[in-house]
Structure formats: structure tokens, C-alpha cells
Amino acid sequence: MRVPGRLRISWQDDNTLKIEMDAGTQTRLIRFNPAGPAPTEKTLQGYSVGTWELAGGGRGGRGGGGGGGAAAPAPPRWGSLNVATTNMTAGYLLSSRSSYSENATLTEYFTKHFWVTTSGFFSTPALLCTILQLGVDRVMFSVDWPMNEAPPAMDWMSKIPLSAEEKAKIYGGNAKRLLKL
């Protein structure tokens, strides 16, 4: 999933997240709370098991429990998807230029490596949805000049219902932290 492109993310069933990608027309299945052991057959995609690392240190699968009694504290608003993939055929990672054996375990931390910009897409619902999923610390403001002009983008951003502290992160604080400036 290194090449930029469109993603379609859906739930195949209650415990399997399905990610379809344009690049190479790949489909990844990430299983949460698998019922049985991983299959023994080795494939290019392997067998992926996911867990959520929630803000505040919690972990869990897809769902959340309900129940009677006192109201539970509000769940964290975002977290990180951790995926461990086993049962892969031997291969080569282009990103690090290294090979791996058929006994390797590939561990991916999705949201710890995702950063989103507003570049050319000035949609309030899309921005707020992204913040709800990834957190405000993963969003950076950009304009995509000369395709888009800065004044309309700045006007749009000024009307977003976020705190001054959150806007400061998006306007430049997050980029400074990411680029270690």
C-alpha cells in the first residue's frame, strides 16, 4: 500500500475489514478477533490480523459492548490500526529494499504513518470526518497552488468549527512536528 491511489474501505463481515486499492488492484483483508488459527497456506497477501490501539492505551477489535448499569466513559475519538501479517510467501520490500522470508511477520501501524492535507479539497464534512478518524494531529493545511488560490482556502479554514489550538496545529504546528522544524 505504498503507491498513492484511491482506497475503498468496507467491512466484509462483522470481524473483517476489507481494503481495496487501485494500485495493482489489490485487496487486503484484515481480521479482528479471528475465530480460529491462521491457515497454513502461504500467499502473497498473507494472513493479516488487526487490533486497534486506542488513544489512552486501550486495545480492541471492531465493536464495542453495551450493557446496563452506570454510563461508561466516552470512548477515545481516535487510535491506530495495528496489523500483523503472517503466512506470506518470501518477497522483497521496495520501501526498505530488503527481502523477507516466508517465516517473516510484517507489522504495520497504519494511522501512525498517515498524514492528510487539505490540498485542493476544501470540504468541511470531509475534514471533520478525517479529524474524527485520525485525530487533529494528523492533518495539515495546504492549498495546492497554482491549482487553487490561497484566499478562498484561508476563508474556508477560518470557518471550520475547531478551537484556535486545533487550527494552529493544522495551519503549521503538525508540519513543524512531522518535519522536525
Describe the SSE topology.
Blueprint: E1 7-13, E2 16-21, E3 26-31, E4 47-54, E5 59-60, E6 79-86, E7 91-93, E8 98-100, E9 106-109, E10 116-117, H1 124-134, E11 139-140, H2 150-158, H3 164-179
Parallel strand pairs: 3-4, 10-11
Antiparallel strand pairs: 1-2, 2-3, 4-5, 4-6, 6-9, 7-8
Features of this protein?
single chain; 181 residues; alpha+beta; two-stranded antiparallel sheet; 3 helices; elongated
Determine the N-to-C terminus distance. 28 Å
Element pattern in H and E: EEEEEEEEEEHEHH
Helix content estimate? 10-25%
| Number of DSSP strand runs | 11
Report a brief summary of the structure:
The chain is an alpha+beta fold. Helices cover 20% and strands 28% of the residues. Strand 4 and strand 5 form a beta hairpin.
What would your notes on this structure say?
- The protein has 181 residues and is α+β, with helices and mostly antiparallel strands.
- The chain has three helices and eleven strands.
- It has helices at 124-134, 150-158, 164-179; strands at 7-13, 16-21, 26-31, 47-54, 59-60, 79-86, 91-93, 98-100, 106-109, 116-117, 139-140.
- The strands form three sheets. Strands 1, 2, 3, 4, 5, 6 and 9 form a seven-stranded mixed beta sheet that branches. It has a two-stranded antiparallel sheet with strand order 7-8. A two-stranded parallel ribbon has the order 10-11.
